[in-house]
Design brief:
With about 220 residues, the protein is α/β, with parallel strands linked by helices. The protein contains nine helices and eight strands. An eight-stranded parallel beta sheet has the order 7-6-5-4-3-2-1-8. It is globular and about 50 Å long.
């Protein structure tokens, strides 16, 4: 078995104060997640509803599950009973469906608005202007079963560290703008989820409060 506990502690030792770790456990077995749990980790990131359906019943109930991948609206009802946070809300339509299904379960689901800043067409997310329009629309203010807690983004997959830093800084600046404009009196809007195994140190230098790390903890995908 991959030395999960040791790798987890190595990653945790590099995190700045105030930065939380989402251990990305997708494509890794229950045993690996349990090893990280036994070492103290409680927040795990998954991106497939079918995989979560197997893992959630098999693991401790106090785990905080984050859905970190692209979420189809027809999958929301399956994860609404237990998901803590959906990190990749990329449309008003998806936000409405999370509200509907969370209400059905009498729960409040936390969400992050996903930004598309990276110079890659394959990535999902809202442009900064899309994000402003969604919030200007105001429908989100009527939703009592979702709580917008911040922003999430992925930087471009490139070796150009200056470009990565520019993208992180664009997200950080937008967060500050939206916080002042829409959420000044809402302490829940506080999360800046950017940074993964290869770039999380740069992300922390640009305001990240939550990093999503998988490979550095769990090793190569098992399945």
């Amino acid at each position: 078995m991959f030395p999960v506990k040791e790798k987890l502690h190595e990653v945790l030792s590099t995190l700045q104060p105030g930065v939380r770790l989402v251990a990305v456990s997708k494509f890794h077995p229950v045993d690996y997640i349990l090893a990280a749990y036994e070492a103290g980790q409680r927040v795990f990131g998954e991106s497939h509803e079918q995989e979560l359906a197997v893992k959630v019943p098999a693991l401790p109930k106090d785990i905080e599950w984050h859905f970190i991948g692209h979420l189809q609206t027809n999958k929301v009802r399956h994860i609404a009973p237990y998901i803590t946070m959906v990190e990749a809300v990329d449309s008003l339509r998806l936000l409405r469906e999370i509200e509907k299904q969370a209400a059905r379960c009498n729960r409040v689901v936390k969400v992050l608005l996903e930004l598309h800043i990276a110079e890659e067409a394959t990535k999902y997310g809202l442009t900064p202007d899309d994000c402003r329009r969604l919030l200007d629309d105001g429908e989100w203010r009527t939703m009592s079963h979702v709580q917008i807690c911040g922003l999430m983004m992925m930087a471009s997959l490139t070796d150009d560290q200056e470009q990565i830093c520019r993208e992180f800084q664009t997200a950080a600046d937008l967060f500050d703008e939206l916080k002042a404009r829409y959420f000044a009196d809402d302490p829940a809007f506080c999360e800046r989820s950017w940074g993964m195994s290869d770039d999380y140190r740069l992300a922390m230098a640009h305001g990240s409060t939550m990093v999503r790390i998988g490979t550095a903890i769990f090793g190569p995908r098992v399945y």
